[in-house]
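Entry for adenosine-5'-triphosphate complex. Fields follow.
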Amino acid sequence: MTAITGGTTAPDEPAEAVGCRGLTYTFGETRAVDGLDLSVGAGEVFGLLGPNGAGKTTAIRCVTTLLPVPAGVVRVFGHDAAKEKMAVRRLLGYVPQQLSADAALTGRENVSLFARVFDVARRERAERVAQALAAVDLTGAADRMTTTYSGGMIRRLELAQALVSAPRLLMLDEPTIGLDPIARTSVWEHITAVRRATGMTVLVTTHYMDEAEQYCDRVALMHRGRVHALGTPDELRAALRERRLAAGTAGEKDPVPTLEDVFRDVAGSGLEEEGGVFRDVRSTRRTATRVG
Ligand SMILES: Nc1ncnc2c1ncn2[C@@H]1O[C@H](COP(=O)(O)OP(=O)(O)OP(=O)(O)O)[C@@H](O)[C@H]1O
């Protein structure tokens, strides 16, 4: 696998990649994000977890500047997402839940399109497109029509699209939903390799607790528009164990809770109430349609 290059090494990069203070976003009567405070450190792989409807996508879209910031403050490497949209966009790569590759184009044409949209200098474009495709192991398939790609290949292509501008912050909204275990691992291995090579920050939403545990440095558990628990997966599991021991609901010999236990503890009855489960049918169906 070729590591992508061309990312600006920024020794003077602020220590905070994403900072949300009191972020609130409402759709009519629905308070999707409700006074969200969040701080993602530069270089971290940070997982935003939570049941369906917790407000993860809405929060992420505010950070990307695709949605405005009606209340509160969002900063990306110190730039205000409400006032310095272009400065923020230049730092970002975004892989949304919805299909962002055009089936009528080849893989290379799709990535080239993103290179143009993200204003990659013309003289560098072909090289950067080739690097991005190589970074996700799609060099051999680059000139095939995207319609011939598997779900996993499409996801890797979308990753290449987001990487072609050498972002300092890569945002991924459920990057592995609907993929088989091998394709899921492959997507994560490519994300991890690029991050190692470039030092970029990764902010990811996922419903897969095993992925969060394995690949995220820290996670935030979001519920009803706010963060209810924050820490490394190990810290969160240990904290739940302590709470259970203190409450007498678990004994010393009981196994340490899983991240899924922590998730259930935070979301509580809300999961049943809102019909959300980790591998929610709605999300899977969305992806089935997306790659079909
Ligand atoms: N365009 C919209 N119009 C109206 N309500 C919306 C819209 N988008 C999201 N919502 C509502 O805002 C709340 C938060 O949704 P959001 O998609 O941000 O949650 P999520 O945590 O990303 O969920 P999922 O895990 O299903 O992607 C939900 O109650 C949702 O129904």
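NOTE: Residues 10 and 168 are 9 Å apart (CA to CA).
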